[in-house]
Amino acid sequence: MATDPITKTGFLALQAELNRLWKVERPRVTEEVSVAAAQGDRSENAEYIYGKKKLREIDRKIRHLTKRLEALTVVEPEPSQLGRIFFGAWFTIEDEDGGESTYRIVGTDELELARKQISVRSPLARALLGKRVGDSVQVERPRGNTEVSVLRVWYPSAEEP
Fold first, then answer.
1. Taking Cα atoms as reference points, which of 80, 26, 84 lies closest to residue 55?
2. Minimal CB count within 10 Å: which of 6, 69, 80, 127?
């Protein structure tokens, strides 16, 4: 049963990673193990031992990604959500000190702070869900609560990566 939300971009990225593991990495490592196995005594063959370990890691990642993809639901914005902060939205906020920050609300599988993508389960995202430009809200954070104001809300178009 699919229950965890993910953006279309995030889902496609996970599918691409699974495809890469199946079609590129696993065949390459399998070939390396085959070549190493042909060299004779496997018990002392470092290339063979390392290759088998690498193959197990790849298989573990494949199983994990396969299960995750089955548990995910691609969530796309509804026309009625436009102008308000919901899953998949980009937004810019201003804090009490006048500092501006821009983030996108995404699923836990695509969380990447370096790309300004925050989890839908984060305190900031939860506090801002449903808000629109001009709204202010108190947000809990480790160094104390702060008030933020919504300056801008937008959803990526189908052409954007």
1. 26
2. 80
